[in-house]
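Hi L.,

As promised, DNA-binding IclR family transcriptional regulator:
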Amino acid sequence: MNAKADKPDRSVATSLRKALAILEEVADADGPLTGQQIAVQVGLSRSTASRLALDLCELGYLAPLSNGQGFELGTAALRLGLRKFSSIDIRRVAAPFMRTISDDTGLMVDLALAHGDEMLYFEVSRKSGSVVLATELGSRMPIEKTAGGLAAISAFMPLEREQVLARLKMKYGADWPQVEARIQRAMEEIATYGFCTAIGTWRPDVSAVGLPFIDPRTGRTFSFSCSGIGYTIEEDRLRKEIGPRMVELVHNVASAMGTAPRP
């Protein structure tokens, strides 16, 4: 056996990490990014960023704009995302239950996956003609700002929760006690009612309820939430009608997946 051949090539691993960082930045951007923007956001030289971006274009993971002034995700990256979403059974199982509640209430119902300190939204259901919120399929939101994110934190294993809270404490500095109190309140609500509320934590005019869900096969932490603009949903209705409806949704999804929601 050739030990030298078996030794990982650190230069290849480094290049791969940089390329993946570029893909992350382009995927999270609101629009196409120029080579200069990529270089600044990823912390690379302009030449390195451009070289890696062109390599990703050749592989189909990025696509150059027709005017040559920027990059967007290519078809290969989009196919990967679609395949990943379609392979997650909870999305297929939950969608009809989510549509029922959004149709009945006129509110938006979404399903998100906890990813680091963010929630990744990959199923969004809203009644046709209802007021549109900014959450869209594939969007990311800070975990501490949404009902779904607060619910997810409550479901983390102790070590994972401690790590997330430590990062949030560093992020907020002097404002941390206010955020910590919000998280603690959400955990207490979930322990008591099965759902938590978030009123004005993301936007001043948005109210929502959130509930955690642990995939029994993978251990992944998901959340369901139902939200609306202030004038479409009063706090009393949120607690007495919408919260219990969403608790029922979680039980229905768990039953359809042949398991029970984790207490």
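The first strand starts at residue 62 and ends at 64.

Thanks again for sending the construct details.

K.
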